[in-house]
Request: fold
Amino acid sequence: MLKLIKLEWKKNKIGRSIRNALLLAFILCLFIFAMNFWGIADDPETGVPDAAFGMEVISSTIELLTSMAFLIFASVMLSSFIVSSYKNKTMQIMFSYPVKRQKILISQMLAVWIFNAAALILTKLLIYGCIQAGSAFMTSSFIIDFDITDAGFYIQLIVKSLVIITMSFISLFIGMAMKSSKAVIVSAFLLAVLTQANIGDLTLRNHAVFPILLTVISLISAVLSTCRVEQRDLM
Amino acid sequence: MSYILQTNHLTKTIGGKTLVRDVNLHIKKGRIYGFLGPNGAGKTTVMKMLTNLWKPTEGSIEIFGEMLTPKSYEVLKRMGSIIEFPAFYEHLTGYQNLKLHTEYMGYYQHGSIERALELLSLTEAGAKPVKTYSLGMKERLGIARAILTKPELLILDEPSNGLDPAGMKQIRELLKALSEEYGITVMISTHILSEIECIADTIGIIHHGQMQDEITMKEIEDKSFAYIELSVENPERAAYVLSEKLGLTNFKLISEGQFRIYDSRISTQELSKALALKDVAVTALGKRSETLEDYFLKLTGEALRDVEAH
Reply:
């Protein structure tokens, strides 16, 4: 399996994805840093961040922006690794190999999942680190509500990241059903908005049940995307 | 006689439309099998089922003596194929594409990629990304990939797409050599008869999703006979010359003044000379033979030498 995953990375020029992920991480970091220390999100009248309810703390902003960004990044990769390969017929080559087809699909999904989970975790660590370092000699606009010396902080960070990246399987399932790369990306965007953003005062972000439910749906989507692939005709 | 590949009443229906029906194929080991049929006859459908990309609605496929099931992976190791047009990872070079192929096939033999590229005259192009290739080069790279792992059975669906006449000749010679030297069995589909008539041992003809005939080239040669067609102005006198002077018995008058002579001992020169001596005015004289094409046309009733192919 590890070999299949490595081949997927090699085939899809993972170097390019690494470059893009680094760029994305850097931009996110710069943006959040600017909001927190240079006051770009501050309301000119009040001098405090123009944040929605529940968003006055820095961790909410970091989680929101990184999660949305990497959920979409993951679905872009899923669409180019999997949905496009159905469309440009390279899947036909993959299915002519003496490898179980389900295993091929799972390796493709894992190749994207591992990459993005790692990228999201590292990006978050980078941003939290920068904010922590900056707060030592600058005034923060947002309330700093995390403690990098606490082990619970890291556990929460990792678990949240894994849940978010797993959600991209929902958009993969939709994209595969509709045979469209665009559908993968659009549905990921909608998912990101639905789960992360505030709509008026309504947000689904802070309910405990919701992430669990989403993870379950994500895993069901992942299973549905790979089941019966041996029996189905490759169109 | 055992077959390396055979199908039993193979039928495929998609969305209520029957693409192929009751196809029975029999391919012997080490032979080149020409799978012939007009466009849309169902050749690709059959080949997709043979390579397990599509599953039969009814009927069965036996490859290397084993039934093909959705879980047959090991047989794929022994097969090389091109179905429709070969697909590649366009941003990778030809060499990288072949390298990936060996990784997935689990075939590691030093120098095999270089050799395959060389056989298809792609040594230089191998270092370039596939997206820069011409249609013909992609087709050749597809063949290089199909033969790379020295499969026992090659399934090639219209492999001459996009090739120029010289390229086609090269492929024909390559396939013939592979079959003769390594005993590789080749199944090759085409709608252009001339492409396979000189290399195939057996021809299977499919039309409207149904097998019309399976016949060896030897049988076709035995079946088809040459004859001389002769048109004259005075058939009575001509008939007299043919039977009395030349001693021919195997001829017939097919229409007013037109004869067919099935005797192979006589040449057209002798004939015209004898007729001229007896003052028979000859309006047309020529040798005809029933070719594979005639045979094919008889079966399918459609012109095969497709214009678009040229």
Summary: The two ends of chain B are 38 Å apart (CA to CA). Confidence is low (pLDDT under 50) at residues 303-310 of chain B. The domain at 225-289 of chain B is CATH 3.30.70.100 (Alpha-Beta Plaits).
